[in-house]
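Schema walkthrough. Field components (list of strings):
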Amino acid sequence: MFMESATNVPDSPVTAGNGVGIDCRSVTAGYLGSRVLHQISFRITEPSIYVVLGPNGAGKTTLFRTLAGILRPYEGEVFIGGEPVDHQSSRDRLHYLTHMDGLPDGLSVREALEFFARAEGAQSGDVDRVLDQLAIRDLSAKFPSQLSAGQRKRVSIARVFLQERSIYLLDEPTANLDPKVAREIRELILKLSREKIVLYSSHNLFEAREIARYVLVIKSGQISRFDRIENVRGSRYVLGIRVLQPSPALVTYDHEGEYYLRELSGPEEVPAVLRELMAQGVQIREAREMENPLEDLFT
Amino acid sequence: MSSPATKYVSRSLYSVSVRRAWVTGRFFLVYGTVISALLGALLAHFSASSFASSYPLFVPIFGVVGSMGGLTVFTSDRTKGVLEYLIAYGYSPRRLFANVLLTTLVLVGIVVGIGVSVSLGVYFAEGNTATSALAISVGVYAVPMAFACAAFASTVGVYWTALSSPRAGINSPVGLIPFIGILPALATLFVIVAATLSGPLSTTTLLLILGSAMGLVAIFVIVLLASMGRLLRRERLLSQA
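Field assembly_structure (string):
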């Protein structure tokens, strides 16, 4: 895994590991001359999930579009597996899920997936596989206009499972999905990330915290943080404790719903606090961090 | 550079687009075909003497209306992110535009083919005979001009759609393009009418006017298609997020 600033990215394209990676070099990109991304540089070679975070308008979708070769950088270059992203060999290594559904009108779900399968060089048998994998077989004869937003999203996600590729660019893949389906999709993506590079954008910070191994934060078109998730700490650490029985030992704690709250200087204090409470006879049912440290990345 | 998969799907993209244009634009297709055939049949039955001079005027109009499904698919694909997907998988914008044009030409072929066949069928069934005026008006003007107008409408519609914000209704490119698409036919008619003010037109002059009109439309369409790479940047094809 490489995380390097613009100044120390090497000149040669990335070929480390399995030979496939993303090398974004001093990229400035945008729309019709208006610059959204400014001098973005990073390299990724390790299979994992990289959650791309940022406020609305920060440039997340522009970054995905640039990495997918849809937008041409005004400055800088993007290499996929050592090849410029505009080369077909680079495109054949990528799956790109747009934040839109991207489902063609006038085709049923099955017909749309067959169309995508042909576009991606997959087999028609793969369509049947993903219909079962994403539990959308019952939708296969329906047209996009007959589907709910969540169903459309599931069908849209199905296409990135038609054929294995090395790099997955997933722009808000779980938006509009109900919690159960969103969890199933996250599990599929987690499995995928064992061998593949997955860039995943989301507005859901709890989801990001659940699946990310790395976070890449974009603010005003620039990368403000690229780090392992465990290195991201909030400005305050609040421990929430749920107990089986109320206890006098917790009388000094604040309340939030069923949770007793205590602000600590960091997670390293948690074991000692829990030991102390258990020594006082407190029966702990659950302990968790109440604040999401990723929230601080937006401020 | 295209992968084998991309080349393969290019061939099927046209057939899929025609099918989708039928599903999403069947109102236009049925309307253009039925009205064109009905008008032609009624004229051939009730006023065979004016059939050769009147019927060809309608053909390009209904050809343009009937072929709007091609532009409808393009507009929908842009709004819903399908074009973005196809570009990401290696389709050039020019190939996507050419797909709209080919789809439109297939649709106008259906409208004109059925409309003209029915109308001429009724005309000959009524015992009328073929004349050179009929051959010129249908074979040299109506049919080629229908294709030319549809190609013109499709190309202008693609540019307009790509250069404007996504919007629906009568104020959208799909709503307005039929009126613009028939402009070449109307302009040609004006020229013919103006030319007849100074006396009857010879067949040579008429063919010259029609040939020039068709040539100008063809040049216009080819120039716009050839310039798409420079005039329309890729971001014009993306949905607005």
